[in-house]
Amino acid sequence: MVIPVNKLINKAHVFMGGTFDPIHYGHLRTALEIQQWLDVESVYLMPANVPVHRETPGSTSAARLAMIERAISGENTLRCDPREILSDRPSFTIYTLEALRKELGSEIPVCMVIGMDSFLTLDQWYRFDEYLSKCHIIVAARPGYHFKPNQKLQQLLTEHQVSEKSDVLTQAAGGILLHELTPLSISATHIRELLSNGLSPRYLLPDSVWDYIQQNKLYGSNEG
Ligand code: ATP
Predict the structure, then answer these.
(1) Which HAMAP family does the annotation name (predicted)?
(2) Do residues 177 and 162 make contact, with C-beta atoms less than 8 angstroms apart?
(3) Nearest-CA residue for atom 13 of ligand 1
(4) pTM score, two decimals?
(5) Is 162 among the domain residues?
(6) Residue among 14, 15, 19, 50 to mutate when testing ligand 1 (max atoms within 8 A of CB)
(7) For the domain that residue 158 is a member of, what is the CATH number?
(8) How many domains does the chain have?
(9) Is 20 in the pocket of ligand 1 (CB under 6 A)?
């Protein structure tokens, strides 16, 4: 049977890590737009267990996981990979990349999606200089973060930046691709601030997540 070209689904494994504290439309829209743009079957949201690059999150691992599950319920193209949050060791991305490579082998493209803010601190991440031998990095432009890489990151870009999605879909690893998405100036920090001031974060995140926050009185919210 001949499969029409536009029905071929790319085999790349695409994931987006983060604390998701809580998950919001900035994360969800980014993941969905990347999934559609790359034409892959799904994008995996991968919540971190112990956030090593940032402050401790405001809610428990179980609550963050529950909110992700509610947020992506009914959306088959978005999935949750709970390996880091269920692990008892710190969420160092390099460990995850090593585990993914063990599972997927060396040929399947692996793409790690990160926002611009995360990319600009990448050189501080544990063993970051090994990432590109294991994955591609797709950097999502994010409102409020201007593209001013330091010297180390600039060097990395000079060696690894690619401009076409076909570059990350046909090679297993090694490319950095900057991609513009619908700009959504939403952050979990802002949502936590609204809640701690007794204000509603509604319409910045799915109602199912907002309901969960209220039911469990997270981030200093009172049940509505
Ligand atoms: P916080 O405000 O607590 O730092 P956050 O909103 O940045 O949280 P994270 O869980 O830290 O969310 O982010 C996970 C990933 O999603 C990161 O790579 C981050 O850059 C990206 N991201 C978060 N919000 C957006 C957004 N509005 N647009 C694009 N990317 C985003």
Answers:
(1) NaMN_adenylyltr
(2) yes
(3) 18
(4) 0.93
(5) yes
(6) 19
(7) 3.40.50.620
(8) 1
(9) yes
